[in-house]
Amino acid sequence: MALEGTLKEFGLADILQLIYYQRKTGVLTVDGGFDRVRLLFYEGNIVFAESSKRGESRMGKLLMKKGLIKQEQLDTALKEQKTNGLRLGNILLRMGAISRDDIKDTLTNQFTELVSYVFTWRQGRYEFAPQGIPIDKDIPISLDTQHILMEGLRVLDEWSVVEGKITLDSIFTKTGASVPEALTDEEENVYGLVDSENDVSTISSISGLDNFQVSKVLLSLYEKGLVDRLKAPEEARAGVKERKKARAIPAGLIESVIAALFVISVLFFYFSGEAPRKTRQAEASESLDNLRFLIEVYKVEHGIYPEGLERIGSTTDPWGRSYVYKANAEGFTLSSAGPDGVAGTADDIH
């Protein structure tokens, strides 16, 4: 049975958590009106992502701009794709035009960026259909959905600074004004990649900077009169009014996430109809994953890691003992002492 609804009723973070914690295999389709994104999951992790607006030809152009393939190789691969229907990356790999590591890195970055892009949507419909998913043996990719969740939250937090001013699809052109000598290294890097064709996400992929860094630099160059917007992004026309009404990360996010985790446990019956049977070790491992996620959410919301677990979630493991948690400005460690109750031994669970 498919799970469907609107992003207002059940946000993308909630959907991804549900799929991840229940280790579901199937296809999630999110339609924002201006774009439709399909995410393929195998046992809870993302193995493929595609956009109706950002076709594979876009990836081919990105590979060219990064100097990984040549125009004639891309033309040959696109021509072959029309006859055999294979994915562009697989064709380029079989042609020997690109290494397996280069295409895996490119696809991994592209999939991650695409999911982060959907996190910025404030309206749209989704549908998750459980079904078998073939695994790509040539280019096997499996993105940890938990990590993607954290990346999406980070993107939401950062993009509140540039909300309504720029999107990942924004394209800029050089104005021809004299370039001052006082540009920073990042500004010179991004300015050199503005060519009336590269959008924000493409410049990000080529420059090595993340999307938020590129966006800030482009806005800085725009304010200095060095670049101008080439076209208005479709997303701004479709939903900028709705997005301006919402904070990037709403107040009470911790409580919302905890509530979502509760909903996930209830909705398990919606999918499987039976309760899971887990060992205490498995329960501890899953609980630790949940706590790590909530700890990172707390950090995003408050700017520091929590001193203790009391405000985050359960403080005890399945054996009724306190989790081993330490935090400082740089990060945190979290573990269970395991069945023997002695920290630092072989049966500890991390």
Can you describe this structure?
- This protein is of the alpha+beta class.
- It folds into three domains: 3-159, no CATH class; 171-238, Winged helix-like DNA-binding domain superfamily/Winged helix DNA-binding domain (Arc Repressor Mutant, subunit A), CATH 1.10.10.10; 279-350, Glycoprotein, Type 4 Pilin (2-Layer Sandwich).
- 46% of the residues lie in helices and 13% in strands.
- It has a five-stranded antiparallel β-sheet with strand order 1-5-2-3-4, with helices on one face.
- The longest helix is centred in the last third of the chain and has 23 residues, at 280-302.
Number of domains: 3
Describe the largest sheet. Answer: 5 strands, antiparallel
SS field, number of helical segments: 12
CA distance, first residue to last residue? 35 Å
So what's the oligomer here?
Answer: single chain
Return the string of H and E elements. Answer: EHEEEHHHHEHEHHHEHHHEE
Q: What percentage of residues falls in helices of 4 or more residues? A: 40-55%
What class would the helix/strand composition place it in? alpha+beta
Q: Nearest-angstrom radius of gyration?
A: 22 Å
Give a quick summary of the entry.
The protein is an alpha+beta fold and 350 residues long.
Outline the secondary-structure elements:
Blueprint: E1 3-6, H1 12-21, E2 26-31, E3 36-42, E4 45-51, H2 56-65, H3 71-84, H4 88-95, H5 100-119, E5 125-130, H6 145-159, E6 171-174, H7 185-193, H8 200-207, H9 211-223, E7 227-231, H10 234-244, H11 253-271, H12 280-302, E8 324-327, E9 332-335
Helix pairs in contact: 1-6, 1-11, 3-4, 5-6, 6-12, 7-9, 8-9, 11-12
